[in-house]
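As practice, study what follows.
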Amino acid sequence: MKKLLLFAFILVCTTSIYSQNFSYGFVTGVNYHDTEAKNSSRSITGEVHDRPNIHVGAFADYQFSERLGVKLNTQYNRLHEKYRLYLGGTNYINSTYSINTFQIIPHLKFDVKTAYNKGGYLLVGPRMSIVVSANDDSGTDVKDFYKSTNFGVQAGFGFNLSKMFALELLGEYGFSDITESEPTKITTAGIYINFNVNVEAIINR
C-alpha cells in the first residue's frame, strides 16, 4: 500500500513538470460512513459506528479552463464498519470490521470565482475503492466477506485557505454492493473532510 501511494505521488510530481496548469500535493482527513443491509432476512444489519475513519494520500489538480479543472485523489483509507449478526431468535452479537482500502477519486472541479484555486469551488465525481485487507474484532480475516472493488459518487465543496492549503467537505453515496454474502446486499453513505497541502505552491512560492 505504501508503495502504491509513493508511486502515485512520484507520478503526480513528474507530470507536473511538463505543465504549468498542474498542481500536486498531499491529502489527508477523516470520514464517517454508515452501512445499510438489504435482503438479509435479518441475519445481519448495519449499525452506526461513531469512530472516524482516517485517509491519507496524494492529489493532482489540472486546470483546463479559467474556472474548470480536474482533481484526482489517490489515497489509503482505513474503514471501520459495525454489524449486528443474528444467531437465531433474539440472540445477536455486535462485530466491528476494519477494512484497508486503496481509493481512486477523480473530481470535476468548478471554481466559484473567475480565478482558479482562489476562494471556493465545487467538486463532483466517482469513487472507486479496492479492498486490500479486512479483519474483525478478533483479528480474523474477513476479506472474503467483501467484493474486491466497490463504487460510489461524491459531491461537495472546498475552500482555498491560501495558495498552499485547502479544506473540503464531501458527501458520498456508495451505490454498489460491497459484500459477497448473497443474497444480502450492503450499500454505504458517508461524509469526507479533506485537508489539502499544495506542495507545488510551497516549492514555487
